[in-house]
Structures are given as structure tokens and as C-alpha cells.
Amino acid sequence: MEAIAQEAEVAVPTVYANFRSKTGIVAEILDTARFGDDYQQAVREAMAEERPRERLQYAARIARRIYESESSVRDLLRGAGAVAPRLARHDEERECLRYEMQQHLIEGLALSKELRAGLDVQQARDLLWAFTSRDFYRMLVRERGWTPHDYQEWLAKTLLGTLVDQG
């Protein structure tokens, strides 16, 4: 904490006041990596798109940007939740927020009558949340060697094929 305060040219209590703990600093680093300028731009573009089917494809692009940008930080923190329960809770809160933010997208598909027949809004939302999870990105890109572009293309096609009525 002393080194951070010195680098920022502030007093140590100021660092604690802003971040509360070392774990708070790590959480802030993760959030900055995940939700930086690229993410904000992708969200603005998605929100500007009025057609639900096309907006769904932005979910793949946004997922790629988040997971690609956090990759370097995530390697350092793998398993950190076991050592820092507050960091694990922070990740859980972010997952809940991600789930909540996806509601509008699914409701748009349902309102436009584009939601795949046989799927209700809850099931569709659960599938969107699962397919856009960090785990799929990690398994395909990090462990199986897919490019981030290949992941994004697969995810967009999978979301359309799973959630959108093709008729």
C-alpha cells in the first residue's frame, strides 16, 4: 500500500479510503481491464442498434472484448478468490450484474417475436448468460487455441441459432 501511495503521490490513508484494502485494488484493476474504453464503445454501438437480432450479435463482440482485455490480469489472479473471499464476492456480484444487463436484450427478442419457438424469456436469458460466460472463452481460446475472432464468430452464430427463430 505504501508503494501505491508513493507512486500516486498521496498518503497511505488516501489509498485505503479509496480502495479499502489490497483486494479492493485488485478488484479495481479487474474492472478497469474488463470495462474500459473498448467495452464502453461496444455497449454504445449495441444500444444504438434497434434490431434485436443484430443486437444479439453484439453480445458476442462484447464478451470477446471483456475476456480478451482481462486475460493478462486474470492469469495473475487465478485462484485468488480462495485466498481473498472479498474478490470472489466481487466476481459473483459482477456475474449477477452481467445477468441483469442481459434481460433487456432477451426481452427485445421476445417483444419483436424473434425469440425461438419453445423458449421462454427465462430460459433464453439463462442460455445467453451461460454462452457468454468467461468459461467458454477460456476453454476455447486459452485452452484449445482458438483465436478471439474465431470465438466471437462462433458465439454470434451459436446465440443466433439457439435463441432466434429462424423462420
Put the structure in a nutshell.
This protein is an all-alpha fold and 167 residues long. It is 80% helix and 0% strand.
What does this structure look like?
The protein is mainly alpha-helical. The protein has one domain: Orthogonal Bundle (Tetracycline Repressor, domain 2), CATH 1.10.357. Helices cover 80% and strands 0% of the residues. The chain is built from 11 helices and no strands. Helix 5 runs antiparallel to helix 8 and helix 9 runs antiparallel to helix 11. The N and C termini lie far apart (58 Å). The model has no long low-confidence stretch (mean pLDDT 83).
Keywords:
167 residues; mainly alpha; Tetracycline Repressor, domain 2
Q: How big is the Rg?
A: 18 Å
CATH class: Mainly Alpha
The first-to-last residue Cα distance is 58 Å
**What fraction, in percent, of the residue positions are helical?**
over 70%
Question: Would you spell out the secondary-structure blueprint of this structure?
Answer:
Elements: H1 2-8, H2 12-19, H3 22-34, H4 37-48, H5 52-77, H6 80-83, H7 85-101, H8 103-111, H9 121-131, H10 134-143, H11 148-163
Helix pairs in contact: 1-2, 3-5, 3-7, 4-5, 5-8, 5-11, 8-9, 9-11
